[in-house]
Design goal:
By secondary structure, this protein is of the alpha+beta class. It contains five helices and eight strands. It has one domain: 2,3-Dihydroxybiphenyl 1,2-Dioxygenase, domain 1 (Roll), CATH 3.10.180. The strands form two sheets. Strands 4-7-6-5-8 form a five-stranded mixed beta sheet. Helix 2 crosses helix 4. The two termini are about 25 Å apart.
Length: about 170
């Protein structure tokens, strides 16, 4: 497998509760995708029935073909009463995070780029940074108003779709 991106999280980001409780991460793949597995370094990981800071599987991700598929899934799950944990534009793609009945994290995402190769190059060039938290309802409204998928990405990265209340990633990772 190939390491496509590796990052260390600055200690100050973790200590001030402004960032995740993990100290590093690595995106790896065995094909042209930007990642098939992500490894997190979690200094305080232990056996944890609440699955917040535990050893083992952290989450499973499912790819949607388009942003419209992703946002349509969001609306369908919202209407079914399934609560969203948080959402973000990570750069390579937009992700929605849920929790299943066993308290496992389930991610649904779509790529912002036209091909897996482009997303992988984005990661390899060191362009990945801090995720821009988004309110999916704002994304849905902007898309209905005619924003292109690329416009959604650029506007999300600029903070235009930020949620009213920032999500604390330490509550899920």
């Amino acid at each position: 497998m190939t390491v496509n991106h590796r990052s260390k999280i600055p200690t100050i980001a973790r200590v001030t509760h402004q960032g995740p409780p993990f100290s590093a991460l690595a995106f790896i793949s065995n094909d042209e995708m930007d990642h098939r597995i992500v490894f997190f370094e979690i200094p305080k990981a232990s056996a944890d029935p609440n699955r917040l800071q535990h050893t083992g599987l952290q989450h499973v991700a499912f790819e949607c073909a388009t942003v419209d598929d992703l946002l349509g899934t969001y609306v369908r799950l919202k209407n079914a009463g399934i609560p969203l944990r948080w959402a973000a534009d990570h750069g390579p793609g937009i992700s929605l995070y849920y929790q299943d009945p066993d308290r496992n994290v389930v991610e649904m995402f779509c790529y912002n780029f036209g091909s897996p190769w482009t997303a992988t190059e984005y990661l390899r060039e060191g362009e990945a940074g801090r995720p821009a938290q988004v309110d999916p309802d704002k994304l849905v409204e902007a898309r209905k108003a005619g924003a292109s998928p690329w416009d959604l990405h650029q506007r999300a990265q600029a903070g235009e779709f930020a949620p009213a209340k920032a999500y604390d990633p330490a509550t899920s990772f």
